[in-house]
Amino acid sequence: MAFALLSLLFPVGVMAQTVKNPVKAVFTVSPDHESVTRYELGFFLPGASAPVQVSDIGTGAPSGTDLEKPLPSFPIGVTYEARVKAWANAVDSEWSAPSNLFNRGPLAPTAVRVVK
Fold first, then answer.
1. Which member of 23, 53, 79, 85 lies 3.0 to 4.6 Å from 43 by CB, making a disulfide possible if both were Cys?
2. Residue 14 pLDDT more than 80?
3. Could you tell me the pTM of the whole model?
4. Residue 52's domain is classified under what CATH number?
């Protein structure tokens, strides 16, 4: 099982830079997608060989060869790269190539009122 691409979608930014506050992961599904029972999304510190967090993101119907999934929660202020692996029951693939770097910062308050 192999993957060609993992990218993160985000409100504003440039892919060559660290992405702040991404909202989705998009990846090219495994060539064995029909046999895949779930995908896992791993959060890795840049250059690390083991993830610090792993989330089961299930599977689904790809759009063409891409599958889009919302990002699970992750801590503020830490820079990560994401990787995906496929599972077919108890057999797993290697981790995919890493995504671009991303992190999460505090989001701005959504409403400001001035009252008397």
1. 53
2. no
3. 0.79
4. 2.60.40.10
